[in-house]
From TrEMBL:
Stated name of the protein: DUF4870 domain-containing protein
Keyword Transmembrane among record annotations: yes
Assigned keywords, A-Z: Membrane, Transmembrane, Transmembrane helix
UniProt source species: Staphylococcus lloydii
Entry's transmembrane regions: 26-48, 68-101
Length: 125
């Protein structure tokens, strides 16, 4: 049985907490913290290196990239909507939500909880 088989979890349950090690929690926290500095490369490296070792890091990385892709799409939509003036309101809202949900994800990861921010589309399952 591989390490990934030891944990079975439901992707619809975002409030599920596992008995995770401090290293696993730290790696998921680093995925989100590095997103402030390198939104793609830093989190991708951590996820690719550690995803085989820990289902918690694997799910945390998948949740982060679903969040990143989704909010990139929402930013593009808001930018296009600037043409009809709605985007001037939506673009700052999307940026603020991105910051807030990243901070919440860091706190949830430090508590060993899964967290998929609202408005995230599950591209990677």
């Amino acid at each position: 049985m591989t390490n990934n088989d030891a944990y079975q979890y439901d992707y619809d349950d975002t409030k599920q907490t596992l008995n995770t090690t401090s290293e696993e929690r730290l790696m998921v926290m680093l995925i989100y913290i590095l997103s402030f500095f390198t939104s793609f490369i830093g989190p991708l490296i951590i996820w690719l290196v550690k995803r085989e070792d820990s289902p918690f890091v694997d799910r945390g990385g998948k949740d982060y990239f679903n969040f990143l892709i989704s909010y990139f799409i929402w930013t593009i939509v808001a930018t296009v909507l600037i043409l009809i003036l709605i985007g001037f309101v939506l673009l700052p809202i999307v940026a603020i939500l991105n910051l807030i949900f990243t901070i919440i994800a860091i706190v949830k990861a430090s508590n060993g909880e899964y967290y998929l921010p609202p408005l995230s589309i599950k591209f990677i399952k």
